[in-house]
Amino acid sequence: MKRKIILIILILFCLFSCKQEEPKPKHLDVAKLKEMKSKWQSLNIKNYSFTYVFDVEQPRLFVGHVKVENGIGKVIFEKAYKHSGSDSEWEKTFYITSMDGVFDNILDRYSKDKKEWEEGKLSYFDYTDYPSKGVRYNSSYFFPEELNISYEKPIIGGGFALKGCGHIHLKINDFKMIEKP
């Protein structure tokens, strides 16, 4: 009986004393993003529409209804809730007028996050967070359909620390090509 107890204590000691690695940020595949942007641009689509949704603190926090005609985009921009910060700060991040702007927005955000992480101003960021596993691209038109970014370290063994405001989710909906009049 004593041997069993000692064996169980030794096993538990080994399990709990093993050093568990700190989760490391998962970076955006920038080469793939640039490749997909090049494929999108090679289609030379100049007339289209889509809706994008940013979920940040609240579901559907920022929504843009984009219409591009002859390569020139316009957006009707909605803010679902009052937010902190200046409008110009938020609009720079969440105001998109074309599909090229979607690509640029993702790359700009990633560049900013990576720089802050390298300078020690950001402790964690993950561009391959659940559920999208990175950027999910449209198989026909190559544009990003969905992206999740997490700023919360996963808890070792699964799950995430609950801090709130630690995620950005971008989803592109209702992409349609528009016939020229």
List the helices and strands and how they pair.
Layout lengths: L1 H16 L12 H13 L5 E8 L6 E8 L2 E8 L7 H8 L4 H20 L17 E2 L6 E7 L16 E11 L4
Shape: elongated
Helix-strand makeup class: alpha+beta
Biggest sheet, spatial arrangement of strands: 3-2-1-6-5-4
Average residue-wise pLDDT = 77
Query: What is the CA–CA distance across the termini?
Result: 87 Å
Largest sheet: 6 strands, antiparallel
Percentage of residues assigned to helices = 25-40%
Which regions have little confidence, pLDDT < 50, spanning 5+ residues? Answer: 158-164
Could you characterize what this model shows?
There is one protein chain. By secondary structure, the protein is an alpha+beta fold. The protein contains four helices and six strands, in the order ααβββααβββ. Helices cover 31% and strands 24% of the residues. Strands 3-2-1-6-5-4 form a six-stranded antiparallel beta sheet, with no helix packed on it. The radius of gyration is 21 Å and the shape is elongated. The termini are far apart.
